[in-house]
Amino acid sequence: MKKTEQEKLHVIKIFQSGKLFNTVNIKPETCEYPIKTIPGEFYIVEYLIKDGSGKNTAEGIVKFRATFSKDEMSKLLKKAVDYVSVSCRTKMHPFRVLYRYKPQCYWDDIQVQTNNMMIKCIKDDNGQAANPTNENIFGLLFST
Q1: Residues 6+ apart with CB under 8 A from 115
Q2: pLDDT surpassing 80 at residue 114
Q3: Domain annotation covers residue 2
Q4: Which candidate, 50, 2, 5, 56, places its Cα nearest to that of 28?
Q5: What letter does residue 111 receive in the DSSP assignment?
Q6: Which of 27, 47, 124, 143 is in Cβ range 3.0-4.6 Å of 99 for a Cys bridge?
Q7: What band does 6 get if pLDDT is binned at 50, 70 and 90?
Q8: Predicted confidence band of residue 5 (pLDDT cuts 50, 70, 90)
Q9: Is residue 1 part of a domain?
Q10: What is the predicted pLDDT for the residue at 11?
Q11: By its UniProt entry, which InterPro entries does this protein fall under (predicted)?
Q12: In a 10 Å sphere around its CB, with 0-12 CB exposed, 13-18 middle and 19+ buried, how is residue 42 labelled?
């Protein structure tokens, strides 16, 4: 006797940074399943359909990196604007130490290839991995 769609088990397995985070049985008619994520973290979601004996009859895998939503970005922008808008703060802030985190070969290349001049490059994700400016702006970016 053939199993109906209702008798099959639909399973979602969620992996966060390579470790199993959650396993959920869902209804076959489910079209969406929200997942609470951490910006910058990598996730793998497996969707399995099992028959009555527990054997996989279909599966799919999606891999992604979580980013901030537009609402979260708006909240971060508001916090930043509120912070710098406090009237008792000066508009300028002195920095005593400035860092540029790059490997030694980067500095060696500057001396040999560009006559000690740093050339603008694309921003990587060495800060907050979910920052939407990653790989979207060019410049010389420093840490303080």
Answers
A1: none
A2: yes
A3: no
A4: 5
A5: H
A6: 143
A7: low
A8: low
A9: no
A10: 94
A11: PHYHIP/PHYHIPL
A12: middle
Compute the half-sphere exposure of residue 21: CA atoms within 13 Å on the CB side of its CA: 16
**Tokens standing for 21?**
């985070």
pLDDT in tens, 70-103: 888 889 889 888 887 776 767 677 778 887 878 8
Strands (E), 54-105: 56-65
- Please give the residue range of the domain that contains residue 105: 70-139
Q: How far is CA 132 from CA 83, 125, 141, in A?
A: 21, 9, 15
pTM of the entire predicted model: 0.53
Quick one: which of 44, 41, 36, 43 has its CA closest to 61? 44
Distance CA 49, CA 4 (A): 12
- Give the pLDDT score at 144: 60
Residues 56, 25 share a domain: yes
CA distance 51 to 57: 6
| Gap between the Cα atoms of 19 and 37, Å rounded | 14
Contact in structure between 9 and 55 (CB atoms under 8 Å): no
How many other CB atoms are found less than 10 A from the CB of residue 131? Answer: 19
**Looking at the 3D structure of the chain, how many domains does it have?**
2
What span, in angstroms and rounded, lies between the C-alpha atoms of 118 and 96?
21
